[in-house]
């Protein structure tokens, strides 16, 4: 069998993921096969800067399924850009500001008059130099991920988040006169409630104060703070796979609360994901082969109608409660991160304990999550 490929009905019972790249180096970065004015990212060559994330946020599938963390080499990305000659490049990665060549590469693109855009950034990776360069080259908005409403939730999800660094980043963004600050958040965490939301309200006052402080007397700077809230979808191969799916009414109540909080501040805007749509995602993310009849029907009448027809099945999938030894449909794909590690992270989620990020020295010096063993086996790398 081809390493890393599963053919339903023909592959062995368990299939191992194939991992590309020696430790720390992403040998063959992914990039768009087609660049088109009709694509979702219009006329943009998407280019992968890093794969695998060292921070280990417990809700994030990319943090688990792409381990270990590896960076592309600048020369490899330059070769792709020279060959494809795009007008615009979109940099994709798990932690863009961790890439040591980010600024030199952006400068190289700017010299060639190639436009660029970056996905969301970590607040603690925003230097004045990087922000100044982005502003100078015409970027008008910055996106920062907040993820959880309160310190307790961010700690439980292992976000490695510093409130001070975040507020400092907001002030800097405003000082450098970016017009829009986009904030991302997720709601629907197990046990999330009024205490977390009240803390969030206070934190948004601090965000508002930080952007005003950055504006100074000029009254210019971040004019719009846009908060985007999505619903937690407990994902396969993450510690949160043991969490119950959040209830639709609870999600609606949370969205209402966030909308109310944001509405208190002038120059802030709220956009919330529709909880009913998130439930569709949850159904697809959590179901196994038993949902195939519903998907087959969806090809004829569309997914929402097919889900209505298979109402009992949908409820069964969404209300399924997982225990420590529950076998998940996705367990037959081995991703390299051990189940034992994932479960210990779920226990730490519930206890509010943090796990440090991957060390610089790589997996062999660490051995925490099982990727060291996995890569030493045939086809592991
Ligand atoms: S073994 Fe350690 S360094 Fe390697 S992916 Fe796991 S946690 Fe990160």
Key traits:
381 residues; alpha/beta; Transcription Regulator spoIIAA; five-stranded mixed β-sheet; 39% helix; 15% strand; binds iron/sulfur cluster
What does this structure look like?
With 381 residues, the protein is an alpha/beta fold. The chain has a domain at 120-233 and 244-273: Transcription Regulator spoIIAA (2-Layer Sandwich), CATH 3.30.750. It contains 14 helices and eleven strands. The protein has helices at residues 61-65, 74-84, 102-111, 128-136, 151-156, 163-175, 194-215, 248-263, 275-286, 292-301, 303-309, 311-319, 339-351, 371-376, and strands at 15-16, 24-26, 44-51, 70-72, 88-93, 115-118, 141-147, 180-187, 224-231, 268-272, 333-334. The strands form three sheets. It has a five-stranded mixed sheet. Strands 7-8-9-10 form a four-stranded parallel sheet. The chain has a two-stranded parallel ribbon with strand order 1-11. Strand 5 (88-93), helix 3 and strand 6 (115-118) form a beta-alpha-beta unit. It is globular, with a radius of gyration of 22 Å. It starts with 14 loop residues before the first strand and ends in a 5-residue tail after the last helix. The model has no long low-confidence stretch (mean pLDDT 92).
């Amino acid at each position: 069998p081809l390493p890393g490929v599963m053919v339903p009905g023909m592959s062995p019972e368990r299939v191992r993921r194939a991992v590309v790249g020696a430790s720390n180096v992403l040998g063959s970065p992914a990039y768009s096969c087609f660049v088109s004015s009709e694509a979702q990212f219009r006329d943009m060559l998407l280019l992968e800067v890093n794969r695998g994330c060292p921070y280990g946020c417990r809700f994030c599938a990319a943090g688990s399924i792409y381990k270990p963390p590896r960076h592309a080499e600048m020369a490899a990305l330059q070769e792709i850009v020279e060959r494809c000659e795009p007008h615009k490049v979109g940099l994709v990665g798990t932690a863009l500001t961790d890439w040591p060549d980010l600024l030199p590469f952006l400068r190289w693109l700017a010299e060639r008059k190639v436009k660029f855009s970056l996905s969301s950034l970590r607040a603690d990776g925003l230097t004045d130099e990087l922000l100044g360069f982005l502003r100078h080259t015409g970027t008008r908005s910055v996106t920062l991920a907040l993820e959880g409403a309160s310190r307790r939730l961010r700690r439980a999800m292992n976000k490695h988040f510093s409130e001070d660094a975040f507020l400092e980043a907001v002030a800097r963004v405003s000082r450098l006169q970016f017009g829009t600050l986009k904030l991302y958040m997720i709601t629907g965490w197990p046990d999330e409630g009024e205490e977390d939301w009240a803390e969030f309200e206070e934190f948004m006052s601090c965000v508002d104060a930080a952007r005003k402080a950055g504006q100074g007397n000029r009254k210019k700077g971040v004019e719009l703070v846009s908060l985007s809230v999505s619903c937690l979808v407990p994902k396969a191969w993450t510690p949160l796979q043991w969490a119950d799916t959040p209830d639709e009414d609870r999600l609606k109540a949370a969205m209402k609360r966030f909308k109310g909080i944001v509405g208190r501040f002038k120059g802030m805007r709220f956009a919330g994901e529709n909880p009913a749509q998130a439930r569709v995602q949850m159904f697809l993310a959590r179901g196994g082969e038993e949902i195939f009849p519903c998907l087959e029907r969806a090809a004829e009448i569309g997914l929402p109608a097919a889900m209505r027809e298979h109402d009992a099945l949908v409820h069964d999938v969404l209300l399924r409660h997982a225990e420590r030894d529950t076998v998940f449909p996705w367990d037959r794909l081995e991703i390299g991160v051990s189940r034992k590690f994932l479960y210990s992270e779920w226990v730490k989620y519930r206890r509010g304990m943090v796990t440090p990020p991957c060390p610089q020295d790589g997996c062999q010096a660490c051995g925490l999550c099982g990727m060291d063993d996995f890569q030493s086996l045939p086809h592991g790398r």
